[in-house]
Design goal:
mainly alpha
Length: 213
C-alpha cells in the first residue's frame, strides 16, 4: 500500500525520474495495474516506464508494441533481446524492414537490431531480407561476425571430437595390454578320434565266444 501511494504521488507530481527509480527499487505493488495506467499517459517518459513494467513481467510483446507507438526503437530492441525469443526478434526485424521501406524508421534500425539481438537471429533470415530489400550494406557486418562465430564453434567441435577419439583409442590400447586376447583356433572339419587300446586276452576271448578259436 505504501509503495502504491508513493507511486500515485509521483505520478501526480509528474516526477517520472523518481517514479522510475521507485518501481525499479520497490517491487511490492501491482505492477501490471500501474503499467496499464501509465500506458496512455500524456508524457512519453511515463509511457516508457509502462513498457519497462510490462517487460519486467515477461509481457514482451505488449512492451514492444507500446514502444513502437512512441518510436522508441532502441528500447524495442532491448525488450526483444531480453525476451530470448527468436520469433519475437524476427518479427521486430521484419517490422524494421517494412518501416524502412515506408520511411517509418531509419535504416540504422536494421543494423542496430542485428547487433543488439545477434545471438537470436538466424543468418538465413538476414540473407533473405538483405536480398529482397537490398540491405547487404547494413547486414554485411552481421554476416562477417556470424561466419567467424561458425568457424570458432566448428574448430572447438573438431578439437573435442579429436580429443575424444584419442581417449577412446588410449582406453582400447590399455584394455588390450591388460587383457590379451587368445587367438581363435582354426576349425577342423575332421576331428581326431581317440585311439582305443585293446587287451590281447580280451580280444582272444571275444573270438573264442564267436567260435574262431
Amino acid at each position: 500500500v505504501i509503495n502504491e501511494t508513493l507511486n500515485d504521488l509521483l505520478i501526480e507530481e509528474e516526477d517520472y525520474k523518481s517514479l522510475k527509480q521507485s518501481v525499479e527499487t520497490f517491487k511490492n505493488f501491482d505492477q501490471i495495474a500501474l503499467a496499464q495506467r501509465l500506458q496512455k499517459h500524456e508524457f512519453l517518459e511515463f509511457r516508457r516506464i509502462s513498457a519497462i513494467l510490462y517487460r519486467d513481467n515477461q509481457r514482451y510483446k505488449v512492451s514492444i508494441e507500446s514502444l513502437k507507438q512512441d518510436k522508441l526503437w532502441q528500447d524495442c530492441m532491448e525488450s526483444a533481446k531480453l525476451s530470448n525469443d527468436k520469433e519475437i526478434v524476427e518479427d521486430l526485424l521484419r517490422y524494421f524492414v517494412d518501416g524502412i521501406n515506408s520511411e517509418l524508421c531509419p535504416k540504422s534500425c536494421f543494423a542496430a537490431c542485428l547487433f543488439t539481438c545477434f545471438d537470436l537471429i538466424a543468418p538465413d533470415i538476414v540473407l533473405e531480407l538483405s536480398w529482397k530489400y537490398n540491405l547487404f550494406e547494413l547486414s554485411m557486418p552481421f554476416m562477417v561476425q556470424a561466419m567467424r562465430t561458425w568457424n570458432q564453434r566448428f574448430d572447438e567441435l573438431t578439437n573435442k571430437v579429436e580429443t575424444l577419439e584419442q581417449r577412446l583409442k588410449q582406453n582400447d590400447d590399455n584394455n588390450n595390454m591388460n587383457n590379451p586376447r587368445v587367438a581363435p583356433q582354426a576349425f577342423n572339419p575332421y576331428p581326431q578320434v581317440p585311439m582305443i587300446e585293446y587287451n590281447n586276452n580280451n580280444y582272444n576271448g571275444y573270438n573264442g565266444v564267436l567260435g574262431f578259436m
